[in-house]
């Protein structure tokens, strides 16, 4: 390779690397950042809020798309709060919270998100979700909203508790039973770290 060709190749490689450089963004618990778990029972619908979590998002901006390198989410099980101590206790027991203290989600591949409107990107993200010691691969429809502050991640995902070995909790000697499917709703703004 001639000297001029070597320099040209180096410049091209450098430009490519800069164009795809990833940045890390983090989200922390707060009023604007919410993870909510919705469920049903034979008496009434219910809701649990996640009061503590750690969320990291590695991504790079490309012309009309955003490339997610990785998403990592960690939730302490006992940070799930319904506002009713008995319901919380039943949930922790069902999830074996003393043995499996954390819920983890880790994306398993990079994902190119398409811009569907100015500053709004969509894609399905695949990853490993670990609950109560059981890991399953899941696919989550994800939406990112870009702002001057960072990126707001919005998503909803239905999960079957039995897929993770969790028996739907009951109360009052089995007279109150919860539905097997829960819906998890994410609204998290990530700021550049």
Automatic annotation (TrEMBL):
Q: Where is the signal peptide?
A: 1-21
Keyword terms, alphabetized: Signal
UniProt keyword annotation of Signal present? yes
The answer to whether keyword Signal applies is yes
> Short name of one Pfam family for this protein?
YceI
- Domain of life, per the record? Bacteria
Which residues are in the Lipid/polyisoprenoid-binding YceI-like domain? 24-191
In Swiss-Prot or TrEMBL terms, this protein is called YceI family protein
Q: Which organism is it from?
A: Psychroflexus salinarum
Its taxonomic placement starts with: Bacteria, Pseudomonadati, Bacteroidota, Flavobacteriia, Flavobacteriales
């Amino acid at each position: 390779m001639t000297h001029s060709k070597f320099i040209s190749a180096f410049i091209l490689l450098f430009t490519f690397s800069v164009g795809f450089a990833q940045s890390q963004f983090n989200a922390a618990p707060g009023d604007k950042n919410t993870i909510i778990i919705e469920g049903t029972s034979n008496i009434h619908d219910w809701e649990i809020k996640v009061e503590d979590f750690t969320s990291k998002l590695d991504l790079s901006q490309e012309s009309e798309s955003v490339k997610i390198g990785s998403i990592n989410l960690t939730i302490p099980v006992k940070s799930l709060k319904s506002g009713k101590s008995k319901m919380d206790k039943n949930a922790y027991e069902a999830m074996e919270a003393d043995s499996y203290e954390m819920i983890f989600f880790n994306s398993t591949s990079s994902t190119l998100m398409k811009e569907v409107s100015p500053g709004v990107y969509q894609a399905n993200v695949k990853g490993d979700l670990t609950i109560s010691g059981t890991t399953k691969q899941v696919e989550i429809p994800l939406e990112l909203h870009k702002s001057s502050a960072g990126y707001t991640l919005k998503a909803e995902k239905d999960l079957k508790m039995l897929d993770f070995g969790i028996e739907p909790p009951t109360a009052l000697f089995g007279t109150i039973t919860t539905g097997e499917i829960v819906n998890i709703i994410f609204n998290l703004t990530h700021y550049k770290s």
